[in-house]
Description:
Helix content is 36%, strand content 26%. The chain is built from 17 helices and 16 strands. Strands 1, 2, 3, 4, 5, 6, 7, 8 and 16 form a nine-stranded mixed beta sheet that branches. A seven-stranded mixed beta sheet has the order 10-11-12-13-14-9-15, with helices on both faces. Helix 2 runs antiparallel to helix 11. The N terminus and C terminus are likely disordered.
Amino acid sequence: MNQFKKSKLKSNNNSVSNKIALSQFPFSIKLHSSISSIDNWNTLAPNNIFLQKEYLELVEKNPPEGMRFCYTVFYKLERPIGIALFQIIHFNADKSLQQADKNNPCFFHTFSNFFKGLLAKNVDFYTLVNGNLLLTGEHGFYFNPKEVSEAEGFELLEDAVKKVIPVLKKERKIHVSLSLFKDYHETSTPQSRKLITHQCSEFTIQPNLMMELREDWKSYDDYLAAMLSKYRTRAKRAAKKGANFRKVEFDEAMIIQYQKRIYELYCLIAKSVGFNVLRLSFDYFLGLKQTFKDKFHLIGYFDKDRLVGFYTVIENEEELEAHFLGFEQEYNPTCQIYLNILYDIVKWGIELESKRIVFARTATEIKSSVGAVPHEMYCYMRHSNNFSNRFLNPILDYLKPKEEWKQRHPFKEEVKETVSS
Length: 421
């Protein structure tokens, strides 16, 4: 007999469920609508700042518009053995989407324009996302490897989603139409592909651009010395064009002083991708600084006394995460502001002795020109209606952007390897 009993999710801000049995005995889950109600979350999470309680509390307190949350703790009998993060997005095409630039290769941009153009006011639904829409990478769940194998973890995750959806509908009046399992690396795909057997559609969006930093790069000059001459010349030319920028790392007081302008610059870039369902909270950057102090860096670019651009980076254990940025587009052709930002992020990574830099998606070719390498990320989607779910594969194939780009190989050793192979 099943020893776990379902119970209602309480309707307060820190709602907690009793254990809900999963299909595989002896596993169960508890659902939480607020991360603050989970005392042992950090002991269950990996050493990944984006799955730690402090970051999740920050996002929960400063959520992107329309985002809600659900957190799951997994149990094996009475032992907590894993966690999963769910973000819930209310998607209304008529209110949330702007007219798209047909040349924009962003998947979500194309996705939004498709629904905007064909369905408009008729599109109004919730999507349950396992993962983090603010980031690129595996930031959705974690299991203690001593308790659960990788394959078993994916099965438990998929099983949990089936339990979460009816609870959200009954207790929080959230009717989930789409489930999205977001961003699994190539090394995870043999296990993640098991999700396909549960009527999920597999698709890729854009690769995650990551750059491994070599141990012998003790300075930015070492990085330049490792480059082919044409790329080294390009880096120096960009630095010359951007020489008039005054670059300032912001402390908390400066972020408060320039908060409105920082958000304006962020919105300039956010609007250019045409998909504004996810818009950062006005206080998100300030919250990052208040929460992570010296682990979070916001660097402003000034033209005289005018703030014309900024970028952010977050120290995440051995990785440096290139986070959100913003700038005035008119400074790109004349001062190469975006390319200068990329080179400055490389400088940060070297100075901090990071092992790698995560540049995330978009601007694939220019990021590869500074040394980032594309890594394919796999996502899985399922519609709650079996009939509609049959059409997901062809729709996703149709929506996938046909982006043409050339991977650059800026380092001498890469060219030698290419020739020898």
